[in-house]
Specification:
Blueprint: H1 10-21, H2 29-49, H3 53-65, E1 71-72, E2 79-80, H4 82-93, E3 101-102, H5 110-124, H6 129-150, H7 153-156, H8 161-164, H9 166-177, H10 182-193, H11 208-228, H12 245-248, E4 274-275, H13 286-298, E5 306-313, H14 315-321, H15 330-334, H16 337-347, H17 357-360, H18 363-369, E6 372-376, H19 378-382, E7 391-397, E8 402-407, H20 420-431, H21 437-448, H22 457-462
Parallel strand pairs: 5-6
Antiparallel strand pairs: 1-2, 3-4, 5-7, 7-8
Helix pairs in contact: 1-10, 2-4, 2-20, 2-21, 3-4, 4-5, 4-11, 5-6, 5-9, 5-11, 6-9, 9-10, 9-11, 10-11, 13-16, 16-18, 20-21
Amino acid sequence: MSHEASTDNPYTRGMAEFVAGLQYEAIPDEVRHRIKLLMLDSFGCALYGADLEWCRILQDLLAKVDATRECAVWGTRRKLSAPHAALANGTAVQGFELDDVHRAGVLHVGAVVLPALIPIAERGKGMSGREFLTAAVAGYEIGPRVGLCMGPEHIASGWHSGATLGVFSAAAGAARGLKLDAGKTVHALGIAGTQAAGLMAAQFGAMVKRMHAGRSSQSGLYGALLAAAGFTGIVNVLESEYGGFCTTLSQSKDHFNLRELTAGLGSTWQTMGVALKFYACVGTNHTTLDAIRDMQRERPFGGKDVKRIVVRGSQVTVNHVGWKYVPQGLTSAQLNLPYCVATWLLDGDCFVDQFTEKKVADRARMALADRVEVVHDPEITALGAKFRHKVHVEAHLDDGAVLKRTVEAARGSEKKFATDAEIVEKYQKLARKALPAAKVARLRDAVLGLEKLKDAAELARLMSAGK
């Protein structure tokens, strides 16, 4: 088999030119405001996640093999080298299924961009809050576009999109943080793209699922640092017909659309498409939980009143979260829709307190989860990636009543975005696990007033444990 050696890269180059050329003044006010809220949410998630078992194991190991004490491990007193700090911090942001998600692009954006960007601020010193915000926006704009290009088939075929797409967001944010020109940003994307990896089988109970975002962030940071040093990457990493990201990680040429990579760059802001979570579980589950929450407002009912729950959703919903629940640890519970529905019906919530080793193996919860049926609705699948979380939910009650709800977008999504107060409340609730109240408040004020910050490295100092 022969493969032509072509290096045409209009899309990779177009993305790189946008990243390198982005200026603070070109970012609309609403995008500047939104990204500060998104960053605050990610920092809260990381501070909550820092002390979880899988994060501690990773931190302990890295501290043994890494003698560099340069960059903060958020929520702790530890420091590591920049790449290892990115690995640890990205894992913490994604550590408990609390972090943001660009639903159409299928990517947890903050978990890959911010852990790669903050070490650059720590190492370089003097990066202003405005420059930090600009670099973050560059990162938030790129990864979701790769997700839109790849479509829902990417995750349906078994790739964990947060681990694969995320390298491009991380590299873009880090490259802009380093002020790389467009040529070197092309190489940063090319170095990051060849490191993309992550398997969806990790959702079935494995701790390694939490690490995917950290590895993605680390790969993007390596891409930017190496490119800055003159190292070269695949210049047409997205376009190459043989061995390129899109052709290799797609089922066929019919399953990706290169035009999505640069569509609307500088005018349509994908940052505004990032949603926040108010349930401690995978974003695919949120529309169903909202539907049941709405039904209960119409007529109160709980687990004891339910004969069965039927959820009709996209093929991605069925594959991703609709499998029969078997207790295999916290990860599998958070990624399983029947468990989360049963938990909501029993506890009236699905946040951090609902995911404990005792609860995920609770027999009553498992029995109720068996009464939740997740079935494919081809009409929803046909609507495409932007509607992949849409669900039709039916609650069949013991007295014969059938309640129905259709939900397209979850609370906290771009179509129903949360209020500033709701986001701050969630952040404070999570951050208090790692930081004293005064520091929680100082970090909040620093992020929400980011333009006034003279040195963005202050964010890392405020996320270190202690007073």
